[in-house]
Amino acid sequence: MATTHSLETIRSAFDAFFPGAPVLRVAQNLGGHINQTYFVETTRRKDGCRLFVLQCLNKHVFPDVLGLMDNVMRISEHLEKKSLADPAADRKRDHLHYLHTADGRLGVDAAAGFWRLYRFIPHAEGRLQAESPAEARAAAAAFGRFQALLADMPPPRLVETIPAFHDTRRRYEALECAFIENRAGRADEPEARELLDGFRALRPLALSVQESFERGEMPERITHNDAKYSNILVDPDDGHPVCVIDLDTCMPGLSLHDFGDLMRSMCAEAPEDEPDVSKIRARPEMYEALADGFLAEAGGVLTPAEKRLLPNGGAVMTLEVGVRFLTDYVEGDHYFRVAQPRHNLIRARSQLALARSMAAVLPMG
Ligand code: GN1
Ligand code: MG
Questions:
Q1: Three-state secondary structure string covering 311-347
Q2: Distances 304 to 284, 308, 352, 361 between C-alpha atoms, Å
Q3: Quick check: CB of 271 below 6 Å from ligand 1?
Q4: From atom 12 of ligand 1, which residue's Cα is the shortest distance away?
Q5: 236 — alpha (psi -120 to 50), left (phi > 0) or beta?
Q6: Are 120 and 53 in contact, with CB atoms under 8 Å apart?
Q7: Strand, coil or helix: what is 222?
Q8: How confident is the model at residue 154, as a pLDDT?
Q9: Atom 5 of ligand 1 has which residue's CA nearest to it?
Q10: Alpha-carbon distance 236 to 318, whole Å?
Q11: Ligand 1 neighbourhood includes 246 CB (under 6 angstroms)
């Protein structure tokens, strides 16, 4: 299979972690909109592993790569401690284990991006969709547990890897600016304008979580910030979650951002880029399962407002990502990777449809 980076580039990045180790096989993982991910096989290393995941981080999206890697390394070490202290833990699989380079750096800074490495998690696979309420419940419990495990991380505060990442108000402002600036000549397309109006109409709902935080009703926590089904690895035999992955956006945030992302990724059956909006429907039974799983693990620490606004979380995150997709479309697709010219427009349309459906069938707080 052809890879995005040359084999020589991949070999030389890997060599910084294990100098002289042979690269026997490389396969590219084509998921994810932001980074490039490769599975690399080598001969057995001192730590017993021979399979690793080598990633080239996108420095355009993550300009503060060292801050990001510092977060990721601290989280990985904190989870390792928790895992070591728990006799029932599944230590080889329950957290990502990042490696320093042979000379002690967090990775390799190159023109193409920042290369970092972690151990491949055995007997675990990523899946795009939860197939049943039981799977959704288990996934929400895994993210709830992740949040609970990080609740006692020692200071300092984690770095905000993408400042204002879930500042929904700012995301709306960026959308308005994109339409005014019209850099890619797409702002006058009737469908783009129709979507703009749709997102504007739901702005009060989109801001409901942020406004509750600003009223002091919920605290800042350490959150994952991309809590979707494909960001957990599951056991291929029984589908049970084994590990939360993609820690790049782990930073200070709100609990409802994670719960909202879970809803965004699991409430509908249709994928994020479903072109036929008639297929997009929020399923109350999936919401119930997600809330049940999340509360089982994180409920003990949530405030009354966080519990009351659980359904809002889903609408907020769906609207926010939809607004980001539409902004990117109007600006000329410079952020999210696209596979077709109108991809971001289609994604924005599906997210708006999903948020509308959530607002119609779930008990918004
Ligand atoms: C991006 O690359 P991926 O799929 O992990 C994005 C998330 C969005 C998601 C939408 C850093 O995540 O915020 O929810 O696409 N990540 C970043 O699919 O912007
Ligand atoms: Mg991500």
A1: HHHHHHHHHHHHHHHHHHHHHCCCCCCCCCCCHHHHH
A2: 21, 6, 28, 22
A3: no
A4: 33
A5: alpha
A6: yes
A7: strand
A8: 93
A9: 32
A10: 29
A11: yes
- The whole-model pTM stands at 0.90
Domains of the chain: 7-120 (3.30.200.20), 133-361 (3.90.1200.10)
Nearest residue to 147 (alpha-carbon basis) of 72, 244, 68: 244
Q: Atom 17 (ligand 1): residue with closest C-alpha?
A: 34
Which residue from 283, 256, 216 is spatially nearest to 365, judged by alpha carbons?
256
Q: Which residue has the tokens 């801001």?
A: 207
Residues in the chain: 365
Among 29, 33, 168, say which to mutate for ligand 1: greatest number of ligand atoms within 8 Å of CB.
33
Do the strands 51-57 and 114-119 form a parallel or antiparallel pair, or are they unpaired? antiparallel
Strand partners, 223: 251
| Predicted confidence pLDDT, tens digits, the chain (365 residues) | 678 899 999 999 999 999 999 999 999 987 777 899 999 999 999 888 999 999 999 999 898 999 999 999 999 999 999 999 999 999 889 999 999 999 999 999 998 899 999 999 999 999 988 999 999 999 999 999 999 999 899 999 999 988 999 999 999 999 999 999 999 999 999 999 999 999 999 999 999 999 999 999 999 999 999 999 999 999 999 999 999 999 999 999 999 999 999 999 999 999 999 999 999 999 999 999 999 999 999 999 899 999 999 999 999 999 999 999 999 999 999 999 999 999 999 999 999 999 999 999 999 99
Q: How many Å apart are CA 70 and CA 64, to the nearest integer?
A: 10
**Which residues lie below 8 Å from residue 129, measured CB to CB, with a gap of 6+?**
229, 266, 269, 271
Sequence-distant (≥ 6) Cβ neighbours of residue 173 within 8 angstroms: none
How high is the pLDDT of residue 208? Answer: 98
Under 8 Å between Cβ of 107 and 115? yes
Q: How far is the CA of 328 from the centre of ligand 2 (A)?
A: 17
Spatial separation of the C-alpha atoms in residues 219 and 222, rounded to whole Å:
10
Write the CB contacts of 285 (distance below 8 Å, at least 6 apart in sequence): 133
Q: How far is the CA of 48 from the centre of ligand 1 (A)?
A: 32
